[in-house]
């Protein structure tokens, strides 16, 4: 018998058994496992620690932090400084943190408490929401790509599209319903402000990106990273870039997010009260690489308590969209020709649209 087929069959069986538990990674931890299952083992190449930072890059400590002045700048100089900071960060890192962003710190804590509350409910309650039917208004599961990825991540998630068609209250779990609705409204308000600053950073009118429907859709993913017994064997989230226009991430105090720049991984430190902003593939595309979408990952949780985060993605591919996206005309010229082809949104990923 072919041993590769045996290995493949075993892997498939483990995946199926894990998925049919319908309680995710949290269920494994609650069961008192002493080792993480093989389906979570990543390759040694992926897990290898970053090589030391060379001397010419020592000045790159981490992503910058930008003060948004409560979204009401006292004078134009402070606004201009914020725009310049965002322009520099979006063009070099694709990531930055924002403080004084106008979202209540009390609401941030309530949102994180809502995520913990849902994931720490009894298994019987969580099982009612567990599904791989991505057409549902609210979905709870572990690993979207469980059956297609080479290895699973040590993370559970619930998610919901909050715009353009917000869910009805009865579609959401009572334990986090109100805070999800309120937080998503605040994120949209902040997103509108950020897109204004990003537009101006590109030398465009404040409403330019909004008029391109960059704010049209909002997808909320609420992650739960249980403590991991063998964190050197797996990840919380594998290396990837976001396919959105823009992502607003609410982290908690437990660090683990890393950004890859020039082949090196940089830790993103905890900044009290800050939100983490990152450029997505679609914004890199329409800005013709003036803003960049960098790959990032989350290390497996080494703490003794669970880590949570809330990622809100501004994207329009909630439903089939006939709109064609490509580099903004005002940003291209004979000296700076378009680097991507114009195509409908559903096919407008960087890899598909890069010009030959």
TrEMBL record:
Region annotated Disordered, chain positions: 335-356
Necessary cofactors: Fe cation
Residue ranges constituting the Fe2OG dioxygenase domain according to the UniProt record: 216-317
GO molecular function, one term: metal ion binding
Keywords: Iron, Metal-binding, Oxidoreductase
Family affiliation: Belongs to the iron/ascorbate-dependent oxidoreductase family.
UniProt cross-references to PANTHER family, sorted A to Z: 1-AMINOCYCLOPROPANE-1-CARBOXYLATE OXIDASE HOMOLOG 2 (PTHR10209:SF876), OXIDOREDUCTASE, 2OG-FE II OXYGENASE FAMILY PROTEIN (PTHR10209)
Name this protein carries in UniProt: 1-aminocyclopropane-1-carboxylate oxidase-like protein 2
Source species: Cardamine amara subsp. amara
């Amino acid at each position: 018998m072919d041993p590769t087929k045996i290995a493949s069959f075993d892997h498939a069986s483990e995946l199926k058994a894990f998925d049919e538990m319908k309680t995710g990674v949290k269920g494994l931890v609650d069961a008192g496992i002493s080792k993480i299952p093989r389906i979570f083992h990543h390759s040694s190449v992926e897990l290898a620690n970053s090589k030391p930072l060379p001397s010419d890059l020592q000045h790159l400590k981490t992503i910058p932090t930008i003060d948004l002045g409560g979204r009401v700048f006292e004078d134009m100089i402070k606004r201009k400084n914020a725009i310049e900071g965002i322009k520099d960060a979006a063009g070099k890192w694709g990531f930055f943190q924002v403080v004084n962003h106008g979202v209540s710190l009390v609401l941030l804590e309530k949102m994180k408490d809502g995520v913990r509350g849902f994931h720490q409910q009894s298994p019987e309650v969580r099982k009612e929401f567990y599904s791989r039917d991505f057409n549902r208004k609210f979905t709870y599961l572990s690993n979207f790509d469980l059956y297609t990825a080479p290895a699973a991540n040590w993370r559970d998630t619930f998610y919901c599209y909050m715009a353009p068609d917000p869910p009805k209250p009865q579609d959401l779990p009572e334990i986090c319903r109100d805070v999800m609705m309120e937080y998503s409204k605040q994120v949209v308000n902040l997103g509108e402000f950020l897109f204004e600053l990003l537009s101006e950073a590109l030398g465009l009118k404040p409403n330019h990106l909004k008029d391109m429907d960059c704010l049209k859709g909002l997808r909320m993913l609420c992650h739960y990273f249980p403590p991991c017994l063998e964190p050197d064997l797996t990840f919380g989230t594998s290396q990837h870039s976001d396919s959105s226009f823009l992502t607003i991430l609410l982290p908690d105090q437990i660090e683990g997010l890393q950004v890859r720049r020039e082949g090196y991984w940089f830790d993103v430190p905890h900044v009290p009260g800050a939100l983490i902003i990152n450029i997505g593939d679609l914004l890199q595309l329409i800005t013709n690489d003036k803003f960049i979408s960098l790959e990032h990952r989350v290390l497996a949780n080494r703490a003794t308590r669970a880590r949570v985060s809330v990622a809100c993605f501004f994207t329009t591919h909630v439903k089939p969209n006939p709109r064609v996206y490509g580099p903004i005309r005002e940003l291209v010229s004979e000296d700076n020709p378009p680097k991507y082809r114009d195509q409908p949104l559903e096919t407008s990923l960087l890899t598909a649209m890069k010009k030959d």
